[in-house]
Amino acid sequence: MGSELSPKAAEIAACARSLIALRGYNGFSYADIAEAVGITKASIHHHFPSKAELVRSVVAAYRAEAAAGLAELAAKVPDPAARLQAWTLFWQDCIRERTLPFCICAMLATEMPAIPDEVGAEVRGHFDDLSQWLAATLADGKRAGKFALHGTPAVEASGFMAAIHGAMVSARAYDDPAVFTSISQGLLARLAARH
Fold first, then answer.
1. Which of 49, 73, 171, 172 has its CB 3.0 to 4.6 Å from that of 179, i.e. a possible disulfide?
2. Residue 53 burial (CB < 10 Å; 0-12/13-18/19+)?
3. Rounded to an integer, what is the distance from CA 169 to the centroid of its chain?
4. Which terms are listed as keywords in the entry (predicted)?
């Protein structure tokens, strides 16, 4: 999760990340982690005194990983349409292979009124980071003649992000990764078809 974490703390955080993706904030406890990792709840408290601190740490690491991945994608894939395609294919693979079947920040956002403020701040930060990246990619596409946007890049980015997160929900509801693929590829086709 992060180089500053001890190996045991990193194992706890990795377990928490998986549980968040599957169940959300309120769907797991330290007892679930203790059983999965094979340690006592007291040992978890030694590394993470509260569940809020554990989840905040997990989300902060996830946010940093995502930001680094988006920056790398922007640097390596100059074509904005190919960049959006690569991002959606990343999620398609994660969902199909169940390596990360759901964006943990999207999952936590559904619980926003019931999660601690420090966790909510990290979740909002991730949404801001992703929205800015999407807006920049869409603006690049507009300048390059790849996309014809109906609204500002920021508005279009918010809609695209919401649709992708909705596609994740639909794939989970139907327990069918192909649902995500169909929706995400349809979004990309509509963006390209506008010009």
1. 171
2. middle
3. 12
4. DNA-binding, Transcription, Transcription regulation
Domain boundaries, the chain: 58-193
How would you class 42 by CB atoms within 10 Å of its CB: exposed for 0-12, middle for 13-18, buried for 19 or more? exposed
Residues of the chain with pLDDT under 50: 1-3
Question: Residue 133 contacts by C-beta under 8 Å, 6 or more apart in sequence?
Answer: 70, 74
Report the residue count for the chain.
195
Q: Candidates 1.10.10.10, 3.40.50.300, 3.30.1490.20, 1.10.357.10; correct CATH number of 58-193?
A: 1.10.357.10
- CA nearest neighbour of 188 among 141, 152, 154, 136: 141
CA of 160: how far to CAs of 24, 29, 51, 62, 153, in Å?
23, 33, 32, 21, 10
